[in-house]
Write a structure and sequence with these properties.
mainly alpha, Rhopdopsin 7-helix transmembrane proteins, about 0% strand
């Protein structure tokens, strides 16, 4: 593996290998840091007995996501890509595990099965190939992956939707926050998909901007909503 390999897969970068070729994509990673900071405030605003280490771990991972994504959108190398995707994958797995344990009260065996199914779905989604003309024209441009690579996040969206429905059925108070997160995430994935498709339409100041920066901004809001749900409802509810 060539860790110095450069990636040119976003509208804003084009074929420019320089550090600041993606200013909007780079700077908007601050949204993850802000989301994590606000979640940190929310966490310590809770009564000490209702704080859970799992929520604090998820907040810490969110800080790392902001840093990793910034590195990828500045260095744009293979090692920076790993710094980007590993924290994201870690957040998804840890959040799903805690969600199944805290909200659905599954056994560790049930959690292991759920995580295994999620990983298999995630791996499969990353291998989906779209023939020219299918789904969106973007799939035939610049060797773009299916839906510009957004297809790999569909399992995360579906898992969020299914768990939201499950919580709504049992009338768990967290379902509304998770539903809001699912809606924002769907919009976020849409902007990620359209980044190259709308590239020429986003020219400003002599440079194209794309829509990937909106993926960052909306994803940060998605993560904050997920963190808020975990902070507020991840501990056993006090007896009434």
């Amino acid at each position: 593996m060539d860790f110095g390999q450069k990636f040119f897969i976003y509208c804003e970068r084009g074929s420019d290998p320089s550090f600041w070729a993606e200013p909007l994509n780079a700077v908007t990673n601050a949204a993850f840091i802000i989301a994590a900071a606000v979640a940190t405030r929310d966490y310590f605003a809770m009564l000490a007995e209702r704080r859970r280490v799992s929520a604090l771990v998820l907040i810490a991972i969110t800080y790392v996501i902001g840093v990793g994504s910034f590195l990828f959108h500045t260095y744009a190398t293979r090692w920076a890509q790993l710094a980007d995707v590993i924290p994201i994958a870690t957040f998804m797995l840890v959040y799903l595990a805690v969600l199944l344990r805290r909200f659905f009260r599954l056994s560790w065996i049930g959690i292991a099965v759920g995580l295994a199914l999620f990983v298999l779905a995630f791996q499969y989604a990353g291998t989906i190939q779209c023939a020219q003309g299918e789904l969106l024209p973007i799939t035939a441009r610049k060797g773009a992956r299916c839906l510009n690579g957004t297809a790999q996040y569909v399992p995360a969206f579906l898992a969020l939707v299914l768990t939201t429905i499950g919580l709504a059925i049992v009338r768990h108070p967290a379902w509304k926050t998770l539903a809001a997160a699912a809606g924002v995430f769907l919009l976020s994935m849409t902007f990620r998909t359209l980044d190259l498709e709308l590239c020429e339409l986003t020219a400003y100041g002599g440079h194209v901007r794309g829509t990937h920066f909106l993926w960052h901004s909306l994803n940060a809001l998605t993560l904050y909503l997920l963190l808020r749900a975990m902070i507020r409802y991840g501990a056993p509810r006090p007896a009434e």
